[in-house]
Amino acid sequence: MKGNSNTTKGNSGFDHKSVEFNISVPPSGRSKDEAWEMIMQAIESEHEKPARIVEMRPKNTWMLVAASIVIVMVVGSLLILNKPYRFETQQAQTMELTLPDGSVAHLNANSWITYSRVYGWFKRQVKMDGEAYFKVKSGKGKFAVTDSRKQQVVVTGTEFNVITRGNAFEVKCFEGSVKVKISGSKPVTLQKGEGVVKSKGALIRPEYPANELEKPAWVTQEFRFNSTPLSKVFEQLSDFYKIEIKIEGIEPETRYFTGTIPAGTVTDVFDVIALSMGLKYTANIDSTVFTFRYGI
Fold first, then answer.
1. Range 196-209 average pLDDT
2. Residue 128 — pLDDT band, cuts 50, 70, 90?
3. Distance of CA 69 to the CA centre of its chain
4. Does CATH place domain 221-294 in 1.20.1640.10?
5. Where in the chain are the domains?
6. What architecture is domain 85-204?
């Protein structure tokens, strides 16, 4: 298309020269309006394109994954190590337990003991309730027994018995020495043949006759009596077998028994005592109550 090169004068008084345009338009069947509409649509669609999102990823992703795995393993290991071993006895049941350092714990009936899975790594400590007899190996540092009331027995290598049930707390030393600690009282050190009990929040040393401080029968599996009043004999047997013993026509405080009896069935033990002391006994239908009287 060619324009004229005439000079025209506008309203402003200036002269404008016409300009020649040489525009080549490809042949098309579309009108000018249709072509213009296509151009506008193309511009609008370009503006409507979503912005490009560039994801920033660390170069050392594998290091983060490895660190996460290590953290999970460490936390898992700590949870496992924090869970203690627990051993428990039921009614009329005893248990002998060898600890990782070679020390031995004997559990009486209705008792439990726990210790850490890292026992012996840094310290030797157990927690218990009920009654337990300990044979502690020496040369491996201090050994400590605690209960839920934070009462504690500390030793290095010895044999001792602990009773801790409710408000009752008693410690007897059979070999070596032990140190007993409770809240609100000065620590007490016991030597072989000595014991201590808690009374009104304080540690008291009772006077034990030499023939009374014997290792528990549930540990030795035998009863040892040396000129022991029959009342004490029956008291021990009653506690051991969890039975009731009645006495008729006898003054058990004035009768004494000496002997060693294997801790077999209750009737085996009573047969020995009855034969030795000239007595006889009867039992109720479920063998929970035994009555002793003079034999005929």
1. 87
2. very high
3. 26
4. no
5. 85-204, 221-294
6. Sandwich (2.60)
